[in-house]
From TrEMBL:
Pfam families named in the record: Epimerase
Name the UniProt record assigns to this protein: Oxidoreductase
Chain ranges of the NAD-dependent epimerase/dehydratase domain: 10-250
Matching InterPro entries: Epimerase_deHydtase, Lipid_A_modif_metabolic_enz, NAD(P)-bd_dom_sf
Species of provenance: Kibdelosporangium phytohabitans
Lineage: Bacteria, Bacillati, Actinomycetota, Actinomycetes, Pseudonocardiales
Length: 340
């Protein structure tokens, strides 16, 4: 990435994860100078329009963050603590999670205060729709008072509030995109996807029943990770209109867990030619949380009106592609293991 370039300089932090890979793919198609930073190497599309620089770094190490964002006009902050099969089940005493989920945002603000760029850079932060806490009914529209119920959501909330304060101080121009439940469509490496859709699809391929921790009536707003990536690109183009606030990014469609799991079972049955696995209710597992029993469905209208963005990828078609990708990957892995 040339410092003499007149093109906008965009840095993606946490670029090697599922969302980061999708955001990298989206931004690589734009005429920008793009620096992507992750703990692992980030996949970059062939023949990108952007001038792309790929870095690996542990951003919790001193000075790595400052080097990563030097000269940036815009920063997309997607870094999240990943432990085990899910990123959001964080215990109150997990100092590493707090360091990553919250500490890095404070570090980012401190670095920008010290660097004092002539124009405050745009900072887009990936939040979660569950930060609201206990929805009061209907679709969440962003006007509700926030009362986060989990450690993860409290860390996200504190980070978001810090960015709002830094925006008010003129240090940066920050906005949080509170994302609906993400799912992929088999486009990227299967190992990147640790979400509920992918987890249940793996169980379905293995012939295991899909277990719900309730009666299946709990509803979720489900957003394809590629639509989420497009939302970040749209937000970059409307940063001044979005600055200082949080915005809800989802489809606005309510899908019950029972319908979702049933659709996953049917999609995998179609992909493999095997009978669909059953969907059953079980007692909540030890790692279950209060938010697992709550409905979270968003009203994305305000964000759409501010940016022109809307979700375009249908869940049903994405489930079919995900099932095919997971079945193909699992069968190739099994074949390689048995022939070794």
């Amino acid at each position: 990435m040339s410092s003499k370039s007149s093109r906008r300089s965009v840095v993606v932090l946490g670029a090697s994860g599922l969302l980061g890979t999708a955001v990298t793919r989206e931004l690589a198609g734009l005429p920008v100078d793009l620096r992507v930073v992750g703990r692992r190497l980030t996949s970059v599309p062939e023949r990108p329009v952007a001038d792309v620089e790929v870095r690996t770094a542990d951003l919790t190490e001193p000075h790595e963050l400052a080097r990563a964002i030097a000269g940036a006009d815009a920063i997309v902050h997607l870094v999240a603590h990943i432990a085990g099969p899910a990123t959001w089940r964080v215990s109150a005493g997990d100092a590493v999670a707090e360091r990553v989920n919250l500490g890095l945002v404070h570090d980012l603000i401190s670095v920008l205060r010290a660097q004092r760029p002539a124009t405050p850079p745009v900072v887009l932060f990936a939040g979660s729709m569950s930060q609201v806490g206990h929805p009061t009914g209907g679709r969440i529209d962003g006007t509700e008072p926030d009362n986060p119920l989990t450690t993860y959501d409290r860390q996200k909330q504190a980070a978001e509030n810090a960015l709002k304060a830094a925006t008010a101080d003129g240090v940066l121009r920050g906005a949080t995109l509170r994302l609906a439940t993400l799912f992929s469509q088999g486009t990227d490496s299967i190992s990147l996807d640790r979400g509920v859709v992918s987890a249940m699809a793996r169980r379905a391929w293995a012939g295991e029943p899909l277990t719900m921790w309730h009666d299946g009536t709990v509803k979720r707003d489900l957003l394809c990770v590629d639509d989420a990536a497009a939302a970040f690109a749209s937000a970059l183009d409307h940063a001044d209109a979005l600055a200082g606030r949080h915005w809800l990014v989802g489809t606005g469609l309510a899908t019950s867990i029972a319908d979702l799991f049933g659709s996953i079972a049917e999609a995998m049955s179609t992909a493999t030619g095997k009978p669909a696995v059953p969907v059953i209710s079980t007692e909540p597992a030890g790692q279950s949380m209060q938010t697992d029993q709550l409905d979270f469905v968003l009203d994305p209208g305000p964000f759409g009106r501010a940016t022109g963005w809307q979700a375009r990828i249908a869940l049903a078609e994405a489930l079919k592609r995900t099932a095919v990708a997971i079945a193909d990957h699992a069968e190739r892995t099994h074949a390689a293991t048995t022939s070794a």
